[in-house]
Each structure stands twice: as structure tokens, then as C-alpha cells.
Specification:
By secondary structure, this protein is α+β, with helices and mostly antiparallel strands. The protein has 3 domains: 3-205, no CATH class; 206-230 and 320-374 and 436-560, L,D-transpeptidase catalytic domain-like, CATH 2.40.440.10; 375-434, no CATH class. It contains 19 helices and 16 strands.
């Protein structure tokens, strides 16, 4: 097909869209168009496709009262380029790639996708009718609707596997933020050439081992779920108590905790029901609604599937390939991994920021590290935490091993400062913590450029690594295996930075800046589940990110 013809066809799509949006709209295509002569079926399907294309372009993708095409303009372009001829069927039979595409849609949950996003029920009905009812098999209008839904499904799956459904953000590393029509049309051309639907779709997915592991765990998860059931989802924190308790009673009824979803309950009945549920789930029994109880009630198989879908899409925000060597910090798992040529060279527990002082998501490179660092306290911590304590008693500075310095880095006697007159608007000093074993940074700090002034470091409260929930810091990431990480960074320069040299510097409490090694990329990310030994391992949604994304993108998804 020559270039001038392609441009002409694209002009027709634009012209039809503008014409029908501004002037008279085309009539709704006939529901049925029975063709008695088999050889004429494709001609009539072509005619019906053209009518349907004109109709959907004028009605913002609306194919029928129950079917809305998400990629209507692209579907229009595809069929105009092919003179409206059927692409998935031929003379009352589905082509092999149509059967393969339908099977993919049917099993699309294995990819973290939702089948009804791709017209599964509607296509299932069409396929059933044309295969079991002789009259429907002759219905050119029915075949044309099936054609358009398959094309729309193909393009939408292509987009969801390549880009995901989450909005790109400041840490998205993909370069193809916008996929042009030609990308989708080329993928379709590849399908027609190969006929391999599954292979085409696999080529669109992220090329990350962790993504593959999560998909493998998802398959095991789906095998363990007999039937997905929809349960009442409870919003938390509670904003409207009356509405919340109505929903809670319905949720308890679904859980067989109470006998009725609507009968009035007094305070004693509520307390008893909540205590019963908490005890049955191994929660702390309080008889009162709290965050842990609501999280447990919301932690259904259907909600778990949504969380897996969200995390599969998070991999689609990364570049197609990652560096050969990099540091990966996953905040919800409280783990750091050092990946070296697809091998985990180091794994460490970490402590991350609290929900109020989150560790930011970022991408950078570890450029140097410092033994026996000095901590300059961020102003955010000074004003929120330290200044009120100092104003009560300046001995707080001594207990925290803090010194006060002016803009010239000269140490100031705290007793000579009128702390009562200082505030966020007027604070001409810095607070620095003297280096040493009781320094909050511990004995080593790793630096990497970022706008948040965060870094990896040791800590003087190493006992906190034994806690299971480790969202405890002001935003920086405390690393348990800091010594192993430092040795790895300088592994290629054993003469200058022998392991014993580093240990002796630390033993003698000497401050040194170590640099000149090959910089290692660092990714700080937020994944609330991962594949592990063929299963899915879930982590707490410590910053509520899953909750936000669920409400924004997946709250109304169909369960079947």
C-alpha cells in the first residue's frame, strides 16, 4: 500500500470523526443481517463493519448499549486500511489467530489482566451463537461486531502488556511514554505474519526476572483460588461512621460473623462481633475497629489479585532492561538486594522511612561512601522534633551528641543562645552530630545524588533490624549489611582498598571518603508483592500506595 493511500485513509478517519461529531450522526447499525448465500457472507460482513466503524467514530467508541471500544480510532484506522474486510473470520469461520486471541483473553488473569476489559463475556456470547445456532452463523451483523471487539481487545492488550495501566510518574524510566498508532498496527502486522498470539504478547512484556517470578507465583495463586468472590470493600480511615458500619455489617454477614446484613445491632452486639472476628483471625482482640482489622477484612483473594496486577504494572514503569549490576531497595519488603549479572550477590535487611517521613522513590548511582560520617540534621527534623525539646532543656543537645554551628561552621555554645526566640522562620544555625559509634548514621554512609538528601547508612540502633516492621526512619535507608556492601563497591581495587584497610579505619574511628570505584546504579522502589519459590509473597502496603491505585484504576473491575 503506497504512502498517499495511507494518508488518504487516515484523512477519512479524521473526516468521519469530525463530521459525525459536529453534524448528523449515522443511524445505529442493524442488530441482524442474515445472509442465506454462504459465499456472500464476507461481503456483507464488510458492509456491516463499515457501518459500525462510522457509528462508533460518531459515538465515542460505543458499539452497543453494553459494549464500548477503548481503541475506537485505531480500530477504525485498521479496518479502513484493509478496506473494511474481516480480519479475524472468513466465511462463517473464525481464523486460527482469532481462536488464539480469545483463549488468551479467557486466561488473561495469568498476566494480571481482567478478561472483561477485553469484551470477554460479549465475545463468548458471539462465539457461542455462531457455533451453536445456524441462523446466528449466517448473521453478518453479529460477525462484524465480533470482528471489532477482537480488534479492540488485541490493541488494548498490546497497550496493557507494553505500558501497563498505571500513570507514568517522576521515577518512570520508560522512553516510550506515548505509543503511536503505527506501533500497534505493526504489532498487528507481525501477528498476521506469524499467527502466534501468545508469542507476540510475550514479546511486549518486561524483560525482568522478578516480573517472571511474580507471574509464576500468580499462576500458583490462581490455581489455589476455586472461585473469586466479591466482598464488600471497607474504606479506612473512617470518614462517615454510619455508612462505614452499614458496610461493616454487610462484610461481617459475608464472613458469617453475624446473621443479618441489615438488622439493627446494639453496642454489645458490635463489640461481640468484632471480638469474634479478631479472635478467629489471630488479631489482637480489642472489640474495636482498627486498621489491622479492616486490612484483614479487605485481604480477600480478589483484592490480592488486584495487588498482584498493580505490581506487575509497576515493572512496566521500568526500562526494558536493567543494568548488569545494581542495588535494588524494595521499601515494603524492608530488603536491599545487590544484583550482579542476574545473581543476588548480597541481600540485607533495611530500615526505611515511616509513613509520615517516607523514603522517596528514586533512581541514582552510588558515587562514594564515608567512614565515620558526621550527620548534619535536616531542618525538617530540627523543627518538627528537636527544637521543641531543646527549648525545654538544652541538655537535650548533649544527650543526642549534637553541636551547634553557625554559617561559618564555627561551634557555638548552646548556653549563649536564646532558644525561645528561634523558630522555623528564624534559625541561623545548623545542628551536627559528632562522629562516633553513637552517631545516628553509624560508622558508614553511602552517598548518591538525589534532591531529597537521603542516603544509605549504618545505624547506632542496630537492634531495630530484628523487628519485622521496619518503617522507622526519617527517610534515609539504614542497611544492616553495610560492611559487605562497602567491600563489594571496592572489590576491583584490593590494593588501595583492601578489606582490612576499611576495617582498620573503622576500628581507629577515622573519617575517610572512598571514591574512584565504578558507580553502581541504585533503584529505590515500592513493590508490595513478589514471586518467591513459585508463590506470591505479599508485604504490607506501608505507605498506602496500593490502596490509592486500587481506587483509581481497579475498584470497579468485573470479577469474572
Amino acid at each position: 500500500m503506497n504512502v498517499s493511500k495511507i494518508f488518504f485513509q487516515l484523512f477519512i478517519v479524521f473526516f468521519l470523526t469530525e463530521l459525525f461529531s459536529c453534524n448528523t450522526r449515522p443511524e445505529k447499525p442493524e442488530e441482524k443481517d442474515i445472509v442465506e448465500i454462504r459465499e456472500q457472507i464476507d461481503v456483507r460482513v464488510t458492509r456491516n463493519i463499515q457501518k459500525n466503524i462510522e457509528f462508533i467514530l460518531a459515538n465515542k467508541g460505543r458499539l452497543s448499549d453494553t459494549v464500548l471500544l477503548s481503541m475506537d480510532s485505531l480500530v477504525g484506522t485498521l479496518y479502513i486500511r484493509h478496506d473494511y474486510k474481516p480480519l479475524w473470520s472468513k466465511q462463517e469461520n473464525w481464523l486460527p489467530e482469532a481462536d488464539s486471541l480469545f483463549q488468551f483473553i479467557e486466561h488473561s488473569k495469568e498476566y494480571g489482566l481482567f478478561p472483561n476489559d477485553y469484551h470477554f463475556k460479549a465475545l463468548q456470547k458471539v462465539r457461542s451463537l455462531v457455533s451453536t445456532d445456524s441462523t446466528s452463523g449466517k448473521d453478518a451483523a453479529l460477525w462484524s461486531r465480533g470482528e471489532l471487539m477482537l480488534s479492540d481487545a488485541f490493541f488494548l492488550i498490546t497497550r496493557h502488556l507494553k505500558q501497563g495501566r498505571l500513570q507514568y510518574d517522576s521515577v518512570t524510566l520508560r522512553k516510550d511514554t506515548v505509543l503511536a498508532d503505527d506501533f500497534f498496527l505493526n504489532i498487528y502486522a507481525q501477528l498476521k505474519q506469524s499467527g502466534n498470539v501468545a508469542g507476540i504478547f510475550r514479546s511486549l512484556e518486561p524483560k525482568h526476572g522478578a516480573y517472571d517470578s511474580l507471574k509464576a507465583g500468580l499462576r500458583f495463586f490462581l490455581d489455589s483460588v476455586n472461585v473469586f468472590k466479591r466482598y464488600t470493600y471497607l474504606p479506612y480511615p473512617v470518614k462517615d461512621s454510619a455508612t462505614f458500619f452499614n458496610m461493616l455489617q454487610k462484610r461481617f454477614f459475608e464472613e458469617d460473623v453475624v446473621l443479618s446484613a441489615t438488622d439493627e445491632m446494639d453496642t454489645a452486639a458490635w463489640r461481640g462481633a468484632i471480638r469474634y472476628y479478631q479472635q478467629s483471625k489471630g488479631l489482637k482482640v480489642t472489640g474495636k475497629v482498627n486498621e489491622n482489622t479492616v486490612q484483614s477484612l479487605n485481604n480477600t483473594d480478589w483484592e490480592k489479585f488486584k495487588r498482584i496486577a498493580i505490581n506487575l504494572d509497576r515493572y512496566k514503569l521500568l526500562p526494558d532492561t536493567l543494568p548488569e549490576t545494581f542495588v535494588w531497595v524494595n521499601l515494603p519488603s524492608y530488603r536491599l538486594k545487590l544484583i550482579d549479572f542476574d545473581t543476588i550477590a548480597l541481600e540485607s535487611r533495611v530500615i526505611v522511612g515511616t509513613a509520615r517521613t517516607r523514603t522517596p522513590l528514586l533512581t541514582s548511582e552510588i558515587s562514594n561512601f564515608i567512614t565515620y560520617p558526621q550527620w548534619t540534621v535536616p531542618y525538617s527534623i530540627i523543627f518538627k522534633e528537636m527544637l521543641p525539646q531543646i527549648q525545654k532543656n538544652t541538655d537535650y543537645l548533649r544527650k543526642q551528641n549534637l553541636m551547634v554551628v553557625d554559617k561559618n561552621d564555627s561551634i557555638i555554645d548552646p548556653a549563649k543562645i536564646d532558644w525561645s526566640k528561634l523558630s522555623k522562620k528564624r534559625f541561623p544555625y545548623l545542628l551536627k552530630q559528632r562522629q562516633g559509634d553513637d552517631n545516628s548514621l553509624g560508622v558508614l554512609k553511602f552517598n548518591f545524588a538525589n534532591k531529597y538528601s537521603v542516603y544509605l547508612h549504618d545505624t547506632n540502633a542496630r537492634w531495630l533490624f530484628s523487628k519485622s516492621a521496619r518503617a522507622l526512619s526519617h527517610g534515609c535507608v539504614r542497611v544492616k549489611e553495610w560492611e559487605k556492601l562497602s567491600h563489594f563497591l571496592v572489590r576491583n581495587d584490593p590494593v588501595k582498598y583492601h578489606p582490612d584497610t576499611l576495617r582498620n579505619w573503622i576500628r581507629r574511628q577515622e573519617k575517610h571518603v572512598i571514591y574512584g570505584f565504578r558507580r553502581i546504579p541504585i533503584f529505590i522502589r515500592y513493590f508490595t508483592c513478589e514471586g518467591s519459590d513459585g508463590k506470591v509473597k505479599f508485604y504490607d502496603d506501608i505507605y498506602g500506595e496500593d490502596k490509592i491505585l486500587r481506587q483509581r484504576y481497579f475498584a470497579d473491575k468485573s470479577i469474572n
